[in-house]
Design brief:
By secondary structure, the protein is mainly β. 0% of the residues lie in helices and 59% in strands. The protein has no helices and eight strands. The protein has strands at 2-9, 16-24, 30-34, 38-41, 46-54, 59-67, 72-82, 88-97. Strands 4-5-2-7-8 form a five-stranded antiparallel β-sheet, with no helix packed on it.
Length: 111
């Protein structure tokens, strides 16, 4: 299970209006949960939050949990943008999964 904590902030001097934050899950990852206000699009593997207006100096925090099912590098891509499209930023987070545990149980009923 991977847990990501995300912060979007406005370091500028004017309000950033109608802000949406989106996360593209790593290939093969399974969405588990996210903080309030999220919407999940399973076909595109995108979790998004509509943050609204961020005044100068404001920030907003989100949490995302997913199950990483591939060993090796797993990349989470985050973006934030306003509805007008004139303000945006994009970041990535790489999680290296060393190994995936697997447990299988077979039960045989003797005759």
């Amino acid at each position: 299970m991977a847990t990501y904590f995300v912060r979007v902030r406005n370091p500028g001097t004017a309000p950033a209006q109608d802000v949406t934050v989106s996360a593209i899950l790593p290939d093969g990852a399974e969405f588990t949960s996210a903080s309030d206000g999220q919407a999940f699009d399973p076909a595109r593997r995108i979790v998004s939050w509509h943050v609204g207006t961020l005044n100068p100096g404001d920030d907003n925090y989100m949490e995302l949990k997913c199950m990483l099912k591939s060993a090796g590098k797993n990349t989470l891509t985050m973006s934030a943008a306003n509805a007008a499209g004139d303000l945006s930023d994009k970041k990535t987070a790489e999680t290296n999964v060393v190994a995936i545990a697997d447990l299988k149980l077979d039960v045989s009923d003797p005759a």
